Amino acid sequence: MALLRSSPASLALRTQPKVPIASRRPFSSSRAHRGYDDTVQNLRIGKHTRVIYQGFTGRVATGNAKDSLAYGTNIVGGVTPGKEGEHLGLPLLPNLRKAKEQLKPDATAVFVAAPQCGKAIEEAIEAEIGLIVSVAEHIPLHDMMRVFSILRTQSKSRLVGANAPGIISPIGSCRIGFQPLPTFAPGHIGIVAKSGTLSYQTVASITRSGLGQSLCIGMGGDIIAGTNMVDALRVFESDPETAGIVLVGEVGGRAEEDAADWIVDYRKRVGEKAKPIAALVGGIVAPEGRIMGHAGAWRGPGERSAKEKYAVLEAAGATMVQHPEDFGGVMKTLLSQSGRDVGKIVGNAKKQQQQRGYHTMRRRPATAPYRQESRITSNASKEQRRGLLLGPDQAPTPLEPYLSQAGVSLSDTEAPEDAFHLGVTVDRTARSPCLAVSPSTQPSQLSQRLRHFPYDWREGPTDATIKSAIAHMQLDAAPPAARAQTTALLRALAKMYTEKEAVTLSAAVSIDTPSGNLVLHQPTLHLQFDDAAFRSCARQEAIHSPRRKHLEDPAELEAETHGIVFLTLPSPAAASSTAAQPNIGTLVNGAGLAMNTLDALAFQHSGTATNFLDTGGKATAATVKKSFELILQDPRVKVIFVNIFGGLTDGGMIAEGILLAFREVDMRGLPVVVRIRGTNEGVGQRIIAESGLGLEAFDGFAEAAGRVVELANR
């Protein structure tokens, strides 16, 4: 059952320390005729789109702009604070106000590091730039919630990101982001994806099929996104160049469910003329309670699992695939079944590619190195970021002052069966914080009965919002003291949520029968904080610096220091002895691709992995070597599967890392199966083939995975 949502109301200002506070005034100087939803058509970029860069003279922006100019993007200049003149032969201006006046941009590429990125986006909104693309990783969640609270007050600017590969129109020769250009080809399939690596592999499959792409939108892997799947679907529906649509989702949030609702309505409205839609959802075998690489790749209370989202999309009419390599063939079949002329679509795509000279391939043949672009990240740390989760024994310390304000007692007892769920978290659809409440804490009922009550980040929950939340908890007949304490507790948690930059604060509460007072049960506490605030911006030190590392897997902590996301996956419980035992070590680049690798191994080949490992987009040969060391610590491993699809990651570099591991690491005589596709794949495949190490190399995923499982079962 879909979660119910209430509309945020107009709320009273509450000033919060620590996090920069935005003004309550509407940010656009023009009258907001309607709202943010009306900016979706700003996503239709092409040759006409005048693009500027924020952070133009930075090393990463400079390299990116050179490639985008060569691709055909209409870059008209850029901004670096305090600098004026020329850069790359284009106008360089000291601020956005001058850039807006002189360059008249339609879009801006925000190549600014995480600590300053929120402010840079706000400046672009105030300048009324139509499309804002933010690529930086590790922007604090509350910086972005402040940005979204501003976006809702205007109808001029549309945001893509943050932490997104960006947006690219191969048919319109326009790239705003860092997508690997050799993978793309002009054509007629629209793609929207959370994961960068999964989107690149999807693009490659569509390119190989001859269909090409009309527009590709990267949502990004953060908890909330400026442009979601429904926004993209609305654009694809009205775009005459888009003949078919691909959605690539993953565990976490309800973007896929919202998309399914849209698809049902679309098919009713359009009938047989509906454009065919294919989809994939990663993270089906993701363990509960873990963040799967992307900041937003976790399942919150009451949210559907990836497996459930897969079923919802399928029921809505999307054709589901289990691996992105399959999209090209599936989409050709769907187009044909819908009565469209596939030969004509492919012919048109080929003609457009010939007209462009498909210059990316001409400029970068398979044997030539492709310069790897970097992501914009905070200089504070090279480690992968993830949320800090405090267990019940740790949580009371930061919580106690807020409980004291609310007059609520803390009990070390387990919650009774008639307890209520209460908390503050993120409503990803509303792009804002929300009160999350349920009249039951029973796991079997929580997904159906948990309801979100969104409120404006800058102003906090109103009396009406709190009253509605309490009514949903069915506390109308509760003793007056308990109702008053519930109101005070919700206000206190909302205050703590913003002041301490939390992701989720939740617990079970009950009413003490003799006294009629509210009791919060410590064993049920779930306090999750955004450590990007600490690592990127040095905020919330009191919360994050005492991190108790002895409670975490040492291998995971070791991986963090090398920019690797590594999770050890458990073996089945003893009662499930008939289940397949994990014995496949996996080494993958990109969180989305790593999740899908585990899924496809399990559901297409009956294989079970011992770990989740994402090398990160800036992996080096040393990173690959360290990845092998981490995998080999697990005695369950019988075979190692290296599955690489290079976007930012260079295939040649991955191959060199594999050779380095064989020279310097005790490989225990284990077989290694390697699949390298994407950027510089030819070089990587040649290095593996000529290594003399007995490595088994494959081009296709199905063949590689089949061989991995065969070796694992020996």
TrEMBL record:
Residues 349-396 are annotated as: Disordered. Gene3D superfamilies: ATP-grasp fold, B domain (3.30.470.20), NAD(P)-binding Rossmann-like Domain (3.40.50.720), Succinyl-CoA synthetase domains (3.40.50.261). Residues 45-139 form the CoA-binding domain. SUPFAM superfamilies: NAD(P)-binding Rossmann-fold domains, Succinyl-CoA synthetase domains. Coiled coil: none annotated. InterPro entries: CoA-bd, NAD(P)-bd_dom_sf, SUCC_ACL_C, Succinyl-CoA_synth-like. One of its GO terms (cellular component) is mitochondrion. Signal peptide: none annotated. One of its GO terms (biological process) is tricarboxylic acid cycle. One of its GO terms (molecular function) is succinate-CoA ligase (GDP-forming) activity. It comes from the Eukaryota. Pfam families: CoA_binding, Ligase_CoA. SMART domains: CoA_binding. This is CoA-binding domain-containing protein.
